[in-house]
Design a protein that fits this description.
This protein is of the alpha+beta class. It folds into 3 domains: about 110 residues, Elongation Factor Tu (Ef-tu), domain 3; about 55 residues, no CATH class; about 150 residues, Orthogonal Bundle (Helix Hairpins), CATH 1.10.287. Helices cover about 45% and strands about 20% of the residues. The protein has 5 helices and 13 strands. The strands form 3 sheets. A 6-stranded antiparallel beta barrel has the order 1-9-12-11-10-13. The chain has a 4-stranded antiparallel beta sheet with strand order 2-8-7-4, with no helix packed on it. It has a 3-stranded antiparallel beta sheet with strand order 3-5-6, with no helix packed on it. Strand 10 and strand 11 form a beta hairpin. The two termini are about 30 Å apart.
């Protein structure tokens, strides 16, 4: 009801202006001078870099030591833009940590060489113990051969006793001969028993040596493996990694190539959470137009569009590249006081033609009037 009354009021105002012009003798406007806007969709839009504006900040509380760029400067990816006061301290801490790491690595390598030497020594001791064990077994085998001598002496004694028990042959063997043979057997038995005892003791000692050498060898291998798997300098490596991250935070670096738009900080002041540098890629520009929800159904990708503003040196053109899905309240008010402001809109992205990018990049965030051809 209100809009119907409002439109009638506008029509009445137009008729009244025409009537006053006729009364003053002004000529009536020609039909060709009245531009037909029914063939285009009119909206308000804003010029901005296609990739957006990067807002770069530093660690809050750190003091700004140097700003290396000014607005309008072209930068490349990785270029240092702002240096903070803590950079020198972090570099010194990093240098000290790297020296400590070098010492720790040298000590670890020395410990590893010592472990290898201990392993070789343990292997040599094991081989020696095994050799002693082998010799003890050989000694036991030699003592075992003396048992044959004992058996032979026993057989000889039994033969002599048989001869002496025979009345016809008793005189052939004297008692002294028999006693001498028995004494020889006793001596051989004593030597055999002594040899067996010594050989068994040698074998037991050799087996103990082998077991001890095997234990030492196992411990030497475990010590070497522990040194290889868990070097003592690992914590220092992590500390250096952390210091390098902290050092990277003592400078504001360009994440990509672009143009510096604004520099908000000055050398000597402390950084805050706010941006210090605004950076943008101005080689590609777009216009985000707020199209009335009732008109967006007539917008298609690739449609031509024209953007105008008194702040631009000339109109610029482009093509529709994206149509958003979200409907919301408009952010831009029309310059006309009679334009509606209570409607809902959808963002339509217009990629500006390459030949007009330089004109558009002169006025970032500029509100423009957009006409999209149907």
């Amino acid at each position: 009801m209100f809009w119907r009354f409002f439109s009638r009021l506008i029509s009445l105002s137009i008729l009244l202006n025409v009537a006053l012009g006729v009364a003053r003798g002004d000529p009536l406007p020609e039909a060709s001078a009245i531009k037909d806007t029914s063939a285009s969709i009119v909206a308000q839009g804003r010029l901005q870099p296609t990739a957006g504006i990067l807002k770069l900040s530093a660690v809050p509380g750190d003091r700004i030591e140097r700003i290396s760029v000014e607005p309008g400067a072209s930068v490349v990816a990785g270029q240092e833009l702002v240096t903070l006061e803590s950079a020198g301290l972090k570099k010194l801490e990093l240098k000290i940590a790297e020296l400590k790491l070098a010492d720790a690595v040298a000590m670890h390598e020395a410990a590893l060489r010592q472990a290898e030497l201990g392993l070789e020594t343990a292997q040599w001791k094991l081989r020696s113990a095994e050799q002693v064990h082998s010799q003890a077994k050989s000694s036991l085998e030699l003592v075992g051969k003396q048992a044959q001598i004992l058996r032979s002496l026993e057989e000889q004694i039994q033969g002599l006793e048989a001869i002496r028990s025979n009345p016809r042959l008793r005189g052939a063997v004297g008692s002294l001969e028999l006693e001498a043979k028995r004494n020889q057997k006793i001596a051989a038995q004593v030597e055999y028993d002594r040899g067996m005892l010594g050989a068994n003791q040698s074998i037991q000692s050799a087996e103990l040596l082998v077991a001890q050498a095997q234990s030492v060898l196992r411990e030497a291998k475990e010590a070497r493996e522990q040194l290889k798997k868990h070097p003592s300098y690992r914590p220092l490596e992590k500390q250096i990694e952390l210091l390098r991250i902290q050092l990277d935070q003592t400078a504001v670096v360009a994440p990509s190539a672009g143009t510096v738009l604004q520099v908000y900080g000055i050398a000597g002041e402390r950084a805050t959470a706010l941006a210090l540098i605004e950076l943008a890629d101005l080689t590609r520009m777009s216009c985000v137009a707020e199209v009335h929800e009732s008109d967006v159904g007539q917008v298609r990708l690739g449609q031509l569009a024209e953007m105008k503003s008194a702040s631009l040196s000339r109109p610029i053109r482009g093509k529709v590249s994206r149509i958003d899905r979200v409907v919301g309240l408009p952010q831009f008010r029309s310059a006309s006081p009679l334009a509606r402001s209570d409607f809902r809109s959808i963002a339509v992205w217009i990629q500006i033609d390459p030949q007009d990018v330089s004109v558009a990049s002169e006025r970032l965030q500029l509100q423009v009037e957009v006409r999209i051809e149907k």
